[in-house]
Amino acid sequence: MTKFLMGRTVGLLVCTHCRATVRAVPSAQALCPRCGARVHERRPHSLSVTAALVLSAAVLYIPANLLPVMHMHTFFSEEDDTIMSGVLSLIQEGSWPLALLVFVASIVVPMLKLIAMGWLLISVARQSRGHALQKARLFRLVEFVGRWSMLDVYAIALLVSLVQIRSLATIQVGLGALAFGAVVVLTMLAAQSFDERLLWDTHSDG
Amino acid sequence: MLIVCHACDLVHRRDAIMDKARVRCVRCRAELYRTNSASIDTAIALAVTASVLLLLSNVYPLVALQLNGSIRATTLVGAAIGLYNQGYAPVAALVLVTTLLVPLFQISGMLYVLIPLRANRRAPGQNELFRALTHLRPWAMSEVFMLGALVALVKLAALAEVIPGVSLFSYGALMLTLSALTSVTPTEQFWRWVDGGGR
Questions:
Q1: How far is residue B54's CA from residue B108's CA, in Å, rounded to a whole number?
Q2: Which of B23, B28, B185 best probes binding to A when mutated, by most A CB atoms within 10 angstroms?
Q3: Which terminus, N or C, of chain B has the lesser number of Cβ atoms within 10 Å?
């Protein structure tokens, strides 16, 4: 196998803000000569910050899926909608492509993010070797799809502000929407605070 | 010249590449830089277009709902206000920030930095501002909002007559313009403009 040369072993740092190559100065706070940002060999406390954010998101994931995200009141009926029942009602209306879209964005993506980030954190913490490329690809997927979970929050926002015709139909936001929004924000912050380079530090070729 | 991969810390020797390409890390496949650099004028033109579209998207209604003779319309800001009025200020703020404030900050920040840079001048706070813009990128969610609006419209169509507004179309165009702007200004490209005095 090829031997790879790491920046940290030859005293070179990369500025994560502007991608400039910076010579490491021992025992000093290195500033990037090009953009002025602080340059770290690895982002400090990346693992614990990310773990805290993922754990909080995992806790909030439960009310996000169990509590109603909105409450619809019409002349004929009253109904509570959770994320999942919203998907089911889209299927009943016959728009299954949209139902699939909402199902993926609101249920699959948040779960994938929590499981994937959890697995990546554990494997970094246990310094497990191997599959680094697959892990890096999984992380980039999580980073890329994360924002799409906001879809339901926007749909709810529009429904709530449009359907306010007193005596005919009104829609109220539910607590689930708050928890769901928090899950999206927390998982996005978790992906942003995770230092990808940790995946490679214990790489068997390093 | 040595460069270090920002995603896996691998050291590379940077060779001159003549073809238009995306140069990736040999080990982790992260994109290191692109050789097909866009011109700064393209970026400025896209940012100007986006600013006009953002203005249009906020003065006209997004959609209107017609039910038993009464019409109710909402704007982009109206959607956030609807949430706020029901006591969900954090969710309202999240909607407002990701659909309006971050795109607004991106567009104005780009123009503020790129126009002086084109004439080889540095806007005060250029570096800090551009670092903030890089960081905020994932938080501009116009394309997600468009799909969310689509889902809401389909749900509403079962209930009442839905009339799409001007803003829905201008916001759709804004989404395309913003993604074009993002793709011509990758992080590495911007700092190359800084190094090259706008070229």
A1: 11
A2: B28
A3: N
d(C-alpha A70, C-alpha A164), whole Å: 13
Q: How far is A47 from chain B (nearest CA, A)?
A: 15
**Averaged pLDDT score across all residues of chain A:** 90
B156: exposed, middle or buried (C-beta count within 10 Å: 0-12, 13-18, 19+)? buried
Q: Which amino acid is at A23?
A: R
Per CB-CB distance under 8 Å, the chain A contacts of B88 are 173, 177-178
- Give φ, ψ of A69 to 5 degrees: -90, -25
The residues, any chain, with a CB within 8 Å of residue B127's CB and separated by 6 or more, are A35, A36, A37
- Choose the mutation target among A39, A162, A172 for the interface with B, i.e. most B CBs under 10 Å: A162
Sequence-ordered strand ranges (E) for chain A: 12-14, 21-23, 70-74, 78-81, 164-165, 169-173
> Is B32 in Cβ contact with A162 (below 8 Å)?
no
Helix (H) or strand (E) holding B65, with range, is strand B63-67
Nearest to B58 by CA among B168, B186, B187: B168
Reported as a single tens digit per residue, the pLDDT across B65-85 is 887 788 889 999 999 999 999
Is residue B199 within 8 A of residue B131, CB to CB? The reply is no
Write out chain A's pLDDT in tens, 206 residues. 457 889 988 889 999 888 999 888 776 678 898 888 889 889 999 999 999 999 999 999 999 999 999 998 887 888 899 999 999 988 988 889 999 999 999 999 999 999 999 999 999 999 887 889 999 999 999 999 999 999 999 999 999 999 887 777 889 999 999 999 999 999 999 999 999 999 998 655 44
Residue with tokens 């995992």, as numbered in its chain: A58
